[in-house]
Design brief:
The protein is of the alpha+beta class. It is 36% helix and 23% strand. It contains twelve helices and 18 strands. The chain has a six-stranded antiparallel barrel. A three-stranded antiparallel sheet has the order 7-9-8. Strands 10-12-11 form a three-stranded antiparallel sheet. Helix 3 (171-177) packs across helix 4 (182-195) and helix 11 crosses helix 12 (370-383). The termini are far apart.
Length: 400
């Protein structure tokens, strides 16, 4: 209700009466606020800019009464520049509150002596939930509050980004932290992007601001990794996409995805199925590479149905052949070629036709051990070249 009339909504500046269901009177203490869940916080530390009244100094760590809104709590006042504030002086003060107070940057406050209870001065909150002022970071803290007091939001954003480059910065969260509108923060972020100091990276349905220098370092890391991968595995189409986070272990998933999307957009990298490569990496094999592959496949075929032991071939070459489907695994460390699989299928089709056969008959026909026959049966079943029905099998389709 407002002035005795039922109202559908209250607006800024209105004095309204509310019926709050499920809240006991004793639970509503002095300084309590009503807000959308998650919107307001109750910090116990604040960075502020304040002005003292004439004749009222402020000593280092002086205990004062801190008033914000309707709240009153005890607090320790710590002038951030390291010395007492003189009467009438304006300066930056960090307050350590003895109890949480619902407050936001931009809120005004008044402080009074502990005893006698007289007003000392007042000011405006610049940032809430801040850490204690340490000698080693005092200059950085003062520079930061100077930016906030002077309205240098772009400088503030860059300071925040330097502190957490891998985490990026949500513009809406930053706006809430310093009591600015999202529009003001978006304008400051846009200026940073235009100047080349930062850029926006997708994080699901939203975006996060990241420093350009950090982004370029991460880009250089993945480009170097791809260049090394191509040099080691020239026959491969590219690095598995699933391996990219292992290269950029210090980055969160959203950053990695956003980074790869940006590099794809500007043509630095290309996606090839479930792999990624530098844009200059040839998509087609050269004549020399095809000749090398034929030589390797002949080596593998020379082992016959017994299978080729992978330990006798360069691991990078073998991985590339497996990737391209030019080599098949009977088991880890034992491989064959698709041509040998087709040969096995042909033998089975010629010998058994549409009839059924057992594993032992397959073993005798191929001239291999029972263990190797089990491996071949699993491979051929998986390729559809044989069809299992209990202990019996029939010849299936050919891969050709």
């Amino acid at each position: 209700m407002n002035e005795g009339r039922t109202r559908g909504a209250g607006t800024s500046g209105d004095r309204v009466a509310l019926n709050l269901v499920g809240l006991e009177r004793e639970e509503a203490h002095r300084g309590s606020c009503l807000a959308t869940p998650g919107w307001l916080s109750a910090p116990t530390a604040l960075d502020t800019e304040m002005t003292l009244l004439p004749g009222c100094p402020l000593r280092m760590r002086q205990r004062v009464r801190f008033h914000c809104g309707t709240a009153e709590v005890m607090a320790r006042a710590i002038p951030m520049e390291g010395s007492d504030l003189a009467p009438g002086e304006t300066g930056y003060v960090h307050f350590q509150l003895e109890e949480p107070v619902v407050s936001m940057p931009g809120d005004r406050f008044v402080i009074r002596r502990f005893s006698p209870v007289t007003t000392i001065g007042g000011g405006v909150i610049l940032e809430s939930d801040t850490a204690k002022v340490r000698l080693r970071n005092r200059d950085d803290r003062i520079r930061r509050v100077e930016m906030l007091a002077g309205g240098d939001l772009g400088g503030f954003l860059m300071e925040r980004l330097k502190a957490r480059p891998s985490g990026g910065l949500s513009i809406s969260e930053a706006a809430r932290e310093v009591g600015r509108t999202p529009e003001e923060m978006n304008e400051a972020a846009a200026a940073l992007v235009s100047s080349g100091a930062a850029l926006l990276v997708k994080d699901g349905s939203s975006e996060r601001l990241v420093p350009m220098e950090h982004f370029q370092t991460a880009s250089g890391t993945i480009v170097s990794a791809l260049r090394a991968y191509h040099a080691e595995r020239p026959l491969s189409r590219g690095l598995p996409t699933a391996s990219v986070p292992k290269v950029l272990t210090w980055l969160p998933q959203w950053y990695v995805k956003g980074l790869m999307a940006k590099l794809s957009e500007d043509g630095t990298i290309v996606k090839v199925g479930e792999r990624v490569a530098l844009s200059g990496h040839p998509a087609e094999l050269t004549a020399a590479q095809l000749e090398e592959i034929e030589t390797r496949l002949s080596e593998i075929d020379s082992a016959g149905f017994a299978g080729f032991e992978a330990a006798y071939m360069d691991a990078a070459v073998l991985d590339s052949l497996l990737e391209r489907g030019l080599v098949l695994e009977l088991e880890k460390g034992i491989v064959c070629t698709p041509a040998m699989a087709r040969k096995a299928h042909g033998l089975l089709a010629e010998r058994f036709g549409d009839g059924e056969f057992r594993l032992g008959e397959m073993r005798e026909l191929m001239g291999i051990s029972r263990r190797t026959a089990v491996l071949w049966a699993g491979l051929l079943d998986g390729m559809g070249m044989t069809v299992r029905n209990g202990e019996l099998r029939t010849v299936g389709r050919s891969e050709e």
